[in-house]
Amino acid sequence: MTSQAPLHRDEDPDFEWTLPGLHLKFDHRDDRPVRLVHLATAPEAPSAAAPWAIVDVATAGVEHAGNDQGLLYSSAGQRLRYEGHESNETELRIRQRAPEFGIEVLSVFRVAGPGLQIRNAVRNVGDRSLILLSVSSALVAVPADGAHDLLWGQSEWGAEGRWRQRPLSELLPDIDPAMHGGQHPRGIFSLTSHGSWSTGSFLPTGVLAAETVPSIAWQVETSAGWHWEVAQTGSAVTVGVFGATDSHHQFAARLAPGEEFTSVPAGLCVAASGRDAAFAALTDYRRAIREVRPVDARLPLVYNDYMNTLMGEPSTEKLLPLIASAAEAGAEYFCIDAGWYATPGSAWWVSTGEWLEAPGRFTGGLSSVVDAIRAAGMRPGLWLEPEAVGVESAIAKRLPEEAFFRRFGERVIVAGNFQLDLRHPAARAHLDETVDRLVDEFGLEFFKLDYNRNIGAGTEVDATAPGAGLLGHTRAFRDWLLGLQARHPGVLFENCGSGALRMDYNILSAAHLQSTSDQQDFRKYAPIAAAAPASILPEQAGNWAYPAASMTLEETAFAMTAGVMGRLYLSGFLNELSAEQSDLVREAVALHKDWRHRIAGSHPVWPLGLPGWGDEVIALQLDTGSESLLALWSRGEAAEVALPGLRGRDLKQAYPVALPEWTIRTDGETPVVELPAGPAARIFTVRR
């Protein structure tokens, strides 16, 4: 990423960069690094930022200047000094050097919608090798004025997207530094990924929200290790956003003289008001960094045979009635999920990797099922777990050792699987051949790409440390995905990570769709679906809707509501539903199709706050400006819910029309909705 062309050197200690919706101001001195001192939506607007350095770098053998638990105050980072900068209408580049440590850093701020995508490239300008232990992707500070709440997200298989909001003063207590010789507090609030599931425990997104001063939001864009921390630093609170680090992910990168390492990207947004405004800015930023193809813009409705349905045991006899009922419901794509490559009754997870049709599984062959999908007016798709190779697969013996993740001289094995390393040409060639063959043989137009195992810290093959190997692989995986999409411009690719355990914008900037969970209880899916737009775009949020014959009509509508409020990802034994249930499914599908392109321009709003896992009433609004969709889920006793954020708006029930309308009255101009005991859900249109 580093350009060796000389940058403009400005002797003025301050410089600014102003764009529509963004204003940044920096300063630099001979005795300190470049600092961001002003971050706002316009030159005259209040700044979100307190002065702080724009990058931090840690290298082996160099003292850490701070005596604390965080990654700030590295000596190398503190010794960086301004060398020059240049900018245009889309990008600002700032170069700094610390000659005594042999490093040069080029910080690149790229405009993306209302936000900034930031990278830092560290170059060895010394005469000997150096070991890089961490480099920040973004640093920003806000005044420690008590105005901010911190929002962060926890995640878990089947319980994704559980957001928390707390005052910063609770998380970073005032220890009275003056009583301790002026020392900064040593505590931090931090989130760190674990292993190769980038969102297996926490979400790589955070918000500092305030109502009286500007808010900021950030995200880390990597499928490998990441870490972000919030620390009290004197009169400021500093947010440090990092990819993989030595102390958290066993990361290190050896740089020979002249070599460089570029940090993972970080997104940073500023908003003039509070929580929902910050997430709105982050939503527009995410849209700006996506690589969208014409086929992606269709936003088709996909039926998948897995969830609460075939669960990895497809056959011709099971699929044909599902194909007919999915087409009748309005599905446009039909994806055959796991098991199509496995001999019936076998342990299919230990034999994955060749991706060949299993003999004897499909009467008439898989091609006859694909033909039935097309005859029903839908486009066919298949499930793959491309990085996984079962220990009993022929591919495990056919590919070279270096094509797999390895630690301590042995292959890494998790749950009967090895993992391919997409940096190796043999691994990539195998997967290229697989996808090309399946597209050619079956005319596939959709792939669900899954990732069901946390492989750990990474691989030591061609890497200074395993965390660097994992990062290299995940970057190669994204490149591979982009290559597939270039060769197959009419094929859609879904990202899935055992539900949403690898849900990040390293992949989602390229992939079409994201499964938001593997949660099989429709009642528990409501908080997942309602919180999903805090983490991903609503038009990428593949919320499963799996109606079942055992459900009441109210439960059927409840299950379908989650799908409508994102990307409706249909499943279930639709062929077994009653006529009344089928009508509810078709009605939800019709509403979603009517709104899907408006949803793709909407901003999420949470009229009752981000949902708690056990909340009895949950609300999500997808706001397009003059008109919105509002979903309300009831999971407890009957209740009355006031919606002051919708004061003066007109609410009209849009789904389901066949079930009783919920009573809406006004208290002044504030809508008040009477909810029955749950499970029950309704969708309303909201107009100004």
TrEMBL record:
Gene3D superfamilies: Aldolase class I (3.20.20.70), alpha-galactosidase from lactobacil brevis (2.70.98.60). Pfam families: Melibiase (PF02065). GO terms for biological process: carbohydrate catabolic process. Keywords: Glycosidase, Hydrolase. The keyword Hydrolase applies. One of its GO terms (molecular function) is alpha-galactosidase activity. Transmembrane segments: none annotated. This is Alpha-galactosidase.
